[in-house]
Amino acid sequence: MFFLPSTDRTGQDELILSASDIVAGSTCEFAAVRKLDVLLNRVPALVVEADAMADLTAALGDKHEAKVLGLLREEFGPSRVYEVGPPRTFDRSGLEARHRETIQALRDGFDVIFQGSFFADGFHGRADFLILQEDGTYAVFDTKLARSAKAEALLQLAAYADQLRSAGVPVHRDGHLILGTNETTSHPLPESVPLFYAARDRLRAVLEAHRLASLPSAWGDPRWLACLKCPDCKAEMEAADDLMLVRRMNKSRRAKLMEAGIRTKAMFAAADLPDVGIKMDPLWFELQDQARLQCGLGDIDGTINGVSYKVLPNPAVIAMPKPSAGDIFFDFEGDPLWQDPATGEWGIEYLFGLVEHSADGHDFITFTAHSLEEERQALIDFMDHVAERRAAYPDLHIFHYAQYEVSALRKLARRHGVMVDEVEELVETGVMFDLYETVKGSVRISDRSFSIKKLEPLYMPAGRIGVTNAVDSMVQYSVYRDAVDSGQEQAALTIFRSISEYNHYDCISTWKLRDWLLNLTR
Q: Which one has a higher pLDDT value, 384 or 469?
């Protein structure tokens, strides 16, 4: 989204939208009008923290696109692939020049146009690939790192098909997505183009109406759809003490409270719900109790390192298994963005970490994998280790936090065709024990999140250093792989050691959480 001076000197600047603007606007109109406010100097631009994961994903997307370009050059020959460079100047003349160049390349019949540039009717965008078909039409191809087609991607295909049609270029009936799995999916454009028109026209109307206003966008204005998830929404929610900040709040309950005149977390915490006409059911009281905890109100059972907690009636902790000397505290490190260079298959569980009691206090044991073959062996070795330890301690449990470990073990067993029955036996007999479910059924805390990082102040006062979260570990694993590929062995070892230390901390955290939960009812 940007402005260009009008061709009519007396007219207002022309607002130019991209395919990405239209897709984003169909999801969150508030973010779109806020972006317009920034362009109009009504509000300062939102300062967003650096997102290493987004940068990594973008880099992998560029790599995927470059790979596809290389394959097309091999298939058609370099002379049959025309690459349109970015505008030399990002003004009207520069954009129009690249548009004309793209249309000429299409009319010249190149087999592939890469990064075709369009600029017409208030739209600017660059299509990944336009490929000539046997029937003389051009088909729009877009590269996506995703592993399945999403509605937003189909709108982008429709955007470029519309530009081709407007320029008088015959358009193939289907648009295509070249996915991160190397699969190409086809999608009928007659189904997507009307949706694109509706999204484009709606966004233009919203933006033009807001442009005529004198005041900046205000949070909660019912004229605009808000996704409640994007950075703009999150920033405004925090500033407004929005009801969505209450743990387990959803959009429909938020709407009911707002209809009753309750617009903030603090108002909800202080409200007399029957007096404002809220239909009583247990969940309303639970939500209000949570709001009170988050606001520092109401009864609590304790506060440790700034986090308050309240033990629920009949807590789930009562059903926890008794401690065993053989208990295992388990945590995976995986990278869903890793791709096997031979098969193109996505994802790897590269570190199985577990902590166990020992004569010296505890042992930290790891099984590592940097290829699918090694991943298969790591699964076998892990399961063999568990079987051996169960033989010595039949009453042991494998404690983990949230469902990822169970899901990952099942996925690995299916992927490699080994240990399927053994994994299911661990799950079905309750040897795998999820502490998240126990936490959820035992306590409320003064934070809206139940991530283990938010719980740690209750039982692990020392803060984390180095690699501090799962996203950071994935980013660091990518850095590790780059170091390996470039022959920087010492740097690679240092990076992987920091990931292992993070995993070790998570395993210890799971152990300490188990012990803290067991002490709740004593």
A: 384
